[in-house]
Amino acid sequence: MKKDKKIFILNIVIIVLAVVLVITVFQTIAEAHSIITDYYHEEDSFIYCMEDEDYADMVQYYYDNCGSQGKEEKNMQEYYDLAKYFEAAFHHKIYVESGDTVRAEKYKAIMDETEARLGEFAFVTERMNSVLTNP
Amino acid sequence: MKCNFCGQPLSLEEEFCTHCGQVNPHARQHIRDMKHYKGEFENTKQEVYAATGRYKAVTARVVIIAVLVVLITIMWYLYDNVYSMYLRYLRSDADRNAKEYMAVMDEYIEQEDFQRFYLFCREHEINCYETEYEMYDPVIQSADYYVWFCESVMDFVTSPIEEGESPDWHYVAYTLTEFYNVSDLSWYDYLENFDRPENLQALETMENNMLLMLQTYLGFTEEETAAMSELSEAKRTVLFEEKFK
Q: Cβ neighbours of residue B188 under 8 Å, at least 6 residues apart?
């Protein structure tokens, strides 16, 4: 009887430890996953930036999503082009005003290239230019 | 042994004499004893089996508990160290591919793409301390604040300003000051090739870009920005404060 009670207690301990193990496994996997995968900004974040004319954050989100290698997903291409346009326009203006035509041309080429791909969002570039012209 | 009646030889197992047919009392006693002993033996055997079974059940559970405790300890260790393990992996990867990565970094520097240069270094956990990358240290440190400066100027330009409030220039001033601190090459003179031409060019381009941004987007004059690097942190802060009073 005493022995059976002992086995019963051991069974309970095994169940508790098994549950703890499962929790720690999931915890560790989640931790590893959060470290390895970078934070990703969804389409909504870009739309909010567009609505609020918060183009600085849009550029930031672009780099957060694409990293240094510029891995761009096709469904987000237009938002990324907007971010790249704003960044190029931001730099273009400082070189135009300082008379550095070589660098200004380099950024103008990026602006033209991205603008040509914008499609229905082409109107946003005017708003961007207006924000940069009247800071 | 002999039969008590006819005196003929008998074995202990023979219950009756094979010659006269009389009862062999020793054999009966022997059989009773044997039955008793056998019963006791069986009982003991069953008890031993049961005890061994219970022992095995307890032992098996104790072993399972020990294994679970070891696994939980390992998982806790992994959970606690997964970030440092990942960093170690990235750093050893950066050490293994140093030549390839340095070529990419040089290309970014040449293209003056300091944003991607900084991101690349961060993604690959480029560590300059006692590694092949040490000559990049001034550019990596400066690019960090340069990128932050660009972000803060973009924020300055795009953030709406409420009526009666002055624009938030603090991050711009802070990142500029930190840039000047970390781009001071005298901090890096213990590193080999710290002042290679590519580094000097990169630092000059970053500083020039930052000053142009101040002129274009924050309304500083050329004279004000020309003296910016010579100003102390306090004087620079006062200059910003006066500008956006």
A: B137, B138, B194, B195
Is B1:B10 a contact under the CB 8 Å cutoff? yes
Contact yes or no for B216/A97 (Cβ under 8 A): yes
- A22 is written with which tokens? 């499962």
* Chain A residues lying within 8 Å of B159, measured CB to CB: 54, 56
Contact A17 B83 (CB under 8 A): no
Instruction: Report helix, strand or coil for A26.
Output: helix
Query: What is the rounded distance in angstroms from the CA atom of residue B228 to the CA atom of residue A31?
Result: 44
For B65, residues 6+ apart whose C-beta sits below 8 A from its C-beta are A10, A13, A14, A17
**Helix-helix angle B114-123:B98-110, to 10 degrees:** 160
Q: How many A×B Cβ pairs under 8 Å?
A: 107
- pLDDT reported for residue B164: 67
CA geometry: angle A104, A60, B166, nearest 5 deg: 85
Å between A112 CA and nearest CA of chain B: 19
Task: Say how far apart CA A11 and CA A17 lie, in whole Å.
Answer: 10
Q: Which tokens go with B210?
A: 């930052």
Look up residue A101 and give its two tokens: 């035509």
Reference B106, options B89, B120, B125; nearest CA is B120
Q: What is the rounded average pLDDT of the residues B52-60?
A: 90
Task: List B43's β-bridge partners, or say none.
Answer: none
Which pTM does this prediction carry? 0.80
Test B78 with A97 for CB contact under 8 angstroms: no
HSE, side-chain direction, 13 A CA sphere, residue B44: 6
Query: CB of A6 within 8 Å of any CB in chain B?
Result: yes
- CA nearest A84: which of A103, A53, A61? A61
Instruction: Tell me the C-alpha distance between B103 and B15, whole Å.
Output: 106
- Contact state of A14 with B68 under an 8 Å Cβ cutoff: yes
Q: How far apart are the first and last CA of chain B?
A: 131
Rounded average pLDDT over B31-49: 89
Q: Tens digit of pLDDT per residue, chain A (135 long)?
A: 566 788 899 999 999 999 999 999 999 999 999 988 878 899 999 999 999 889 999 999 999 998 877 777 778 899 999 999 999 999 999 999 999 999 999 999 999 999 998 888 889 999 999 999 876
